[in-house]
Structure formats: structure tokens, C-alpha cells
Write a structure and sequence with these properties.
peptidoglycan synthesis, 4 helices, cell shape, mainly beta, five-stranded mixed beta sheet, acyltransferase, 38% strand, cell wall biogenesis/degradation, L,D-transpeptidase catalytic domain-like, Immunoglobulin-like
């Protein structure tokens, strides 16, 4: 006797047995869309001209994969780049005024192989601008050291130039760029003196950048340097003393003679000067006052208009009593040597007198930076507003 349950099982088996043998009984049949053709995008676009040589240069493919890529200059040299599956990106800057040609191949999801072609041309500058720094790698500077980027010739698009200038510090440091020297140079200084032992990196990435009127930067420049100990000179023309304060402690108090106050041309001007350079022996010449090649020992320049701190034995009778110099700070040769041996480029020299530094001092290429109030300094940035 066959039960209803048994009959149902047999019927189900019989129904299963009616399926085709290819594919095997019970196997699903995969039904998918055919692969899509590759779509290639080059940046910049094919045929582009006046391309910045530092613009992002790449080729990318949708619905496929790059098999090989080459970007070649007119001399046949291939540009270095990184290939990552569906994207290739140039990893070095290009040259000015050159046509670059794409070549290579792409394999689409549809299995078809497509050739990579196309070209573009980089900008040809009407002229080039050279940027130089006043700081150098692996050097140590004083706490008042300004950073100066000089442009030769001066740029007309200061905002474009300033956007390419960066200062990185090992400790948080508030600072700003300002354009001085008739627009030929951008200076960066902190709001207050640098913190000792700060590590600083300055970079001017101006290559490939239109700095105005079709003039492009000729190369990038950078430097990594250190701010040293704090050493500040307090120079008071009324007390006839020059005090040296190192890391907050007074280490020297020298008798000094400053510029003759009865002649405004000779007075030592008031304000924060910055040490610029030093000489063990310096020949001083000033035709206006009738002397030439007078050698003085241990001369430390604090102004390009002839102001130094130096030794001078002939004025020792006046040092600590009277101001008789032609604008320099006179010390005894022995005291001048002590100061000379301790000084760093960028050390501040804070002078108190009746005649202040004026902004015209920037015309001498001086570090006039600290004589400008911070609020005014910030307004000299090309990016303000």
C-alpha cells in the first residue's frame, strides 16, 4: 500500500528529474552584464597649454586598469610617477615651455585594450624670479632673527608669492609676513622674540608659480635652522652703559660711548637693532666726517648705515661718561672681545636714545622689523583683508 506521503515524495523526485543535465541538476545559471569599456581621464586635458609645471599631473581610468603609463618630455626622458592600479600620478615637477606626451595602455572591464595618447604644454615664463633666504641650514641664530625672502627682480603679485611661503616651528609661535624694502623682500618675524631652542623650517615654494606679469619662480628654496639661547643687549645712551642679559640674567655691564648727540647725523638711534654680522677687524670709512680705513677690533654690525658695536681704545676716556662716537657703540677692546665671542647673528640690541629708528632704515636692507608695532606689521602682509 502506498501512502499519500510516499506518493508526494515520488512526485517531487520525478519533477526534479525533469531539469536539464547541462548545467547539472539544481545548479543556478549566472546571468551578468557584459564588462564596460574603459574611460580614460588625463589631467590636464589633452591639448592644454600654459600648464603650471607644478600642477597636479595624472591619468586615471574608470571601468578598467592601467597596464602601463609613460609621460615623456621632448628629449625623450620619462617623468617619474607612481602607478596605482587605476591611477598614475607624476612625482616630480615638470619643465617650463615643454610639450609632454602620454603613452601606454589601458585594459577595460570589457577586456578590450585601449592605447593611452595625448599631450599638453607647460607655461613659458616671460621672465623668471630668483628667491633667496637670509638664513641657512644647520645654523643657530639669536632670538630676534627675522626671516627674509628676497625676490630678484621684485614680484608684482605679492599675494601669489606670500601664499607659497611657509614657516614651521617646533613650538607654537605666532608670527606674520610683511613686505619691506620697497616690496623686494618678504620678512617673517614672531610677535615676540623667539623662544630659545626653537627649531625652524622656512620654505619658499615658488617654482612654477606665476608671481605676476608672467614672471615665474625659477626654483624652490628652504632652510632648517635653530634659535639659540636668549641674549639681549640693553644699550642706554643716557647712562653710557651697555648691559648684556643672557637667559634672563645680567652677565655684563660695560661702560660705553655712543654717538655724539649734538649732531643728529652721528647719534645712535633708538629702537631694537638686530646683529647682522661680525668681523674680528673692520676698516671704518666715512668721507662725510673725514676718516678712512680706520681699523677697529671686534666689530659687530647692528645696522647697514654704519652702526656697530666695536672696540676702540682711543675713546676709552669717554666710555661710561660721554657720547663721542659717529653712531657706533664704543667699548674697550677687551670688553668688545668678550661681547664679540658671545654674539649670534639675530641677537637683539635695544637702544634707548632721543632719535628713533625710522622706516627709511628698511631702504638700507636692515632688519628694521622690530621697530614696527605688531598691529602695523600685520597690515604689511599681502594677504590681509
Amino acid at each position: 500500500m502506498i501512502t499519500r506521503w510516499a506518493v508526494g515524495v515520488v512526485a517531487a523526485l520525478a519533477l526534479a528529474g525533469c531539469t536539464s543535465g547541462n548545467p547539472q541538476a539544481g545548479q543556478a545559471i549566472a546571468v551578468g552584464e557584459p564588462g564596460k569599456p574603459a574611460v580614460i581621464t588625463t589631467t590636464p586635458a589633452d591639448g592644454a597649454v600654459d600648464v603650471s609645471p607644478v600642477e597636479a599631473i595624472s591619468v586615471a581610468v574608470a571601468n578598467g586598469e592601467l597596464e602601463k603609463v609613460a609621460l615623456t618630455n621632448p628629449a625623450g626622458k620619462q617623468v617619474k610617477g607612481v602607478l596605482d592600479g587605476a591611477t598614475w600620478t607624476a612625482s616630480e615637477p615638470l619643465g617650463y615651455g615643454k610639450t609632454y606626451t602620454w603613452s601606454g595602455a589601458v585594459r577595460g572591464d570589457d577586456g578590450e585594450r585601449v592605447e593611452l595618447t595625448g599631450d599638453f604644454t607647460t607655461a613659458t615664463p616671460s621672465s623668471t624670479v630668483h628667491a633667496s633666504l637670509n638664513v641657512a641650514d644647520d645654523r643657530t641664530y639669536g632670538v630676534a632673527m627675522p626671516i627674509k625672502v628676497t625676490f630678484d627682480p621684485p614680484v608684482t603679485d605679492r599675494a601669489a608669492a606670500e601664499r607659497r611661503l611657509t614657516v614651521e616651528t617646533s613650538v607654537p609661535t605666532e608670527g606674520s609676513w610683511a613686505w619691506l624694502n620697497g616690496g623686494a623682500a618678504a620678512h617673517w618675524r614672531p610677535k615676540a622674540y623667539w623662544k630659545p631652542n626653537t627649531q625652524v623650517t622656512v620654505t619658499a615654494k615658488v617654482y612654477g608659480v606665476d608671481l605676476g606679469d608672467g614672471a615665474y619662480g625659477d626654483e624652490d628654496v628652504s632652510a632648517e635652522f635653530t634659535i639659540g639661547r636668549s641674549q639681549i643687549v640693553k644699550a642706554d645712551t643716557k647712562t653710557h652703559r651697555m648691559v648684556v642679559i643672557r637667559d634672563g640674567k645680567k652677565v655684563h655691564d660695560f661702560p660705553a660711548s655712543y654717538g655724539l648727540e649734538s649732531d643728529r647725523r652721528r647719534v645712535t638711534r633708538s629702537g631694537t637693532h638686530v646683529v647682522m654680522e661680525k668681523y674680528r677687524v673692520k676698516a671704518m670709512t666715512n668721507p662725510t666726517f673725514g676718516y678712512s680705513d680706520v681699523e677697529v677690533p671686534f666689530a659687530v654690525r647692528i645696522h647697514n648705515n654704519g652702526e656697530f658695536i666695536h672696540g676702540y681704545a682711543d675713546s676709552m676716556w669717554a666710555q661710561g661718561k660721554e657720547n663721542v662716537s659717529h653712531g657706533c657703540i664704543n667699548l674697550s677692546p677687551a670688553n668688545a672681545e668678550i661681547y664679540f665671542n658671545s654674539v649670534l647673528t639675530g641677537d637683539p640690541v635695544e637702544v634707548v636714545s632721543d632719535v628713533p629708528l625710522g622706516e627709511f632704515d628698511a631702504d638700507y636692507g636692515d632688519y628694521y622689523d622690530w621697530a614696527i608695532p605688531w598691529s602695523e606689521w600685520q597690515k604689511k602682509s599681502a594677504l590681509v583683508g
